[in-house]
TrEMBL record:
Record field: transmembrane: 43-59, 71-90, 96-114, 148-170, 182-206, 213-232, 244-262
Name this polypeptide is given: Probable membrane transporter protein
Location(s) in or outside the cell: Cell membrane; Membrane
Pfam families per UniProt: TauE
Similarity-based family: Belongs to the 4-toluene sulfonate uptake permease (TSUP) (TC 2.A.102) family.
Keywords from the UniProt entry: Cell membrane, Membrane, Transmembrane, Transmembrane helix
This protein's GO CC annotations: plasma membrane
Keyword field contains Transmembrane helix: yes
Keyword Chloroplast found: no
Membrane association type: Multi-pass membrane protein
Principal location class: membrane
Amino acid sequence: MLLTAIALGAVVGMTLGLTGAGGGVLAVPALMLALGYSLADARPIALIAIGLAALLGCLDGLRRGIVRYRAAFWIAAAGIVCAPVGSALIQVLPARWSGLLFSLLMLCLAARTWRGARQAETGHAAGGCRIDPLTGRFRWTRHCASRLAAVGGAAGLLTGMFGVGGGFVIVPGLRRISDAGVHASVATSLMVIALVSGFSAATMLLGSVAVGATGWLFVVAALCGMLAGRVWQPHVPARPLQRVFAGVMGVSAVVLGVNVLAH
């Protein structure tokens, strides 16, 4: 059990370090399917692991000067406002329905990731937030601010509901509405995830949520995986990585859905 927790945590952290997204989506089913946690018990462990791992990745991005930190704070503010709404929504759903809903979310994300893998290399057309070539910063307009806030709100809602980091919303959102490069989008996403997940995890821990020794091993392994992922990220082709990630997420979604229905 302990070795399984370490291995799964390392994979989750590495995924987050490589892609800036998806770590939380894989963390929750890993905890549920391999370690026997319920969705309610898996959420805080996943949030702690993802939040701390994202913080490490964010510090690396800040060191390299590629984090759009003003945008990150703005997106995170919207996410922090919406995260409690997600937590309230998931608590009124029966456990079986919440598990099936999460499985469906994973399937949709897997399909979208598979279709959008080509865009990981070609990029998106900027739509609303453009970088000023003189300052190297976003030109802040009302349209830009509102679109960034919408991305943060969606990520925060899903973070509160399922204990995911929301990077699968933030990275493609930034790529779609801005001309930030893929590495800057990933690093900015990690900063947002660290802020929103950290807030949500702290709220849960203040509510006397227990993590346990196995959970903390998972967290530590995720931190180590994040460090490895950030080292390898510049050298890993984006398109094959996203294809593999989409496949793993799709299979995990099916297995999780079947497991929920069986119980």
